[in-house]
Specification:
By secondary structure, the chain is an alpha+beta fold. It contains seven helices and ten strands. The longest helix is centred in the last third of the chain and has 20 residues, at about 195-215.
């Protein structure tokens, strides 16, 4: 699944090309995603200028003067730039034709979303999909102290709590495993048991892991590519535990272990992450 670094990489790629430009046409070839794409989406947006390209958690927010287009990449979606008239690929479901560039949303599983939030419905941050999201991991308010306080009543495993997104957003399955390894915290440890000192390590690890991923353009997992079709290099350069079951830990040589938490794969080193 595209996580915060992948979505932020996509946002940056879009922002530098289409912000301030007119959307000439949206062509929707398949309306059935997680939620149906509005049938009149082209009528709503045709001829309007994109004011800003933003992100909240894993949601892309394309802001126009009369509302916000919400895009989620689902489990395996991506947005790429194409040449005018380029043949459609399988699973190219939505085309965004701006006055200076064309992009396509490719989503093999159609677990993503393309939704419209009109300005008269109020602040986009109050939208049902965004209202309960936790703090952004690079927000100045996201501190070790905040994390420690927020975990005090969480009895679930720390990995599960991180995936929930109610305390901090964007630390998905891949980067949760990597962050916990950096912090030397066992993913099965009860979240509420973490001391302030361990929360300081985890806070630092989350920011360092996500920064490394952003600098590398995201991961190379599954179908993810950036807006220019490039794949990220995070795993090639940085991955310590994720998808490395039975391979030696890069720190101590102990075989990496895989477990299932909340129907998601978790990878960790049983020696480096004992507690």
């Amino acid at each position: 699944m595209p996580e915060l670094p992948e979505v932020e990489t996509t946002r940056r790629g879009l922002d530098k090309v289409i912000t301030g430009h007119q959307l000439n046409e949206i062509r929707v070839h398949h309306h059935q995603f997680r939620w149906p794409v509005p049938a009149n989406l082209n009528e709503i947006l045709q001829g309007h200028v994109l004011q800003a390209c933003q992100r909240r958690g894993k949601y892309l927010l394309l802001a126009f003067e009369h509302g916000v287009l919400i895009i989620h990449l689902g489990m395996s979606g991506s947005i790429r730039r194409v040449a005018p008239g380029e043949f459609l690929l399988k699973h190219d479901h939505v085309e965004f034709v701006f006055d200076n560039a064309e992009f396509r949303l490719n989503d093999p599983r159609r677990f993503g979303a393309v939704l419209w939030h009109p300005a008269e419905n109020g602040d986009i941050q109050h939208h049902l999909l965004l209202a309960k999201l936790g703090i952004e991991p690079f927000d100045p308010q996201f501190t070790a102290t905040y994390l420690h306080q927020a975990l005090k009543d969480k009895k679930s495993a720390i990995k599960t709590v991180l995936l929930g997104g109610e305390i901090v957003v964007g630390v998905g399955n891949i980067y949760a495993s990597e962050s916990l390894f950096r912090a030397k915290i066992n993913p099965q440890t009860a979240a509420q048991s973490l001391s302030l000192a361990r929360c300081k390590r985890l806070h630092q690890a989350i920011q360092e892991t996500l920064t490394a991923a952003l600098e590398s353009g995201g991961s190379t997992l599954k179908d993810y590519t950036g807006t220019n079709g490039e794949v990220g290099a995070y795993f090639e350069i940085h991955a310590a535990v994720y998808d490395r079951e039975d391979l030696p830990c890069k720190a101590c040589g102990t075989p990496i272990r895989k477990i299932i938490q909340g129907q998601r794969a978790t990878y960790y080193c049983p020696k480096c992450q004992r507690y």
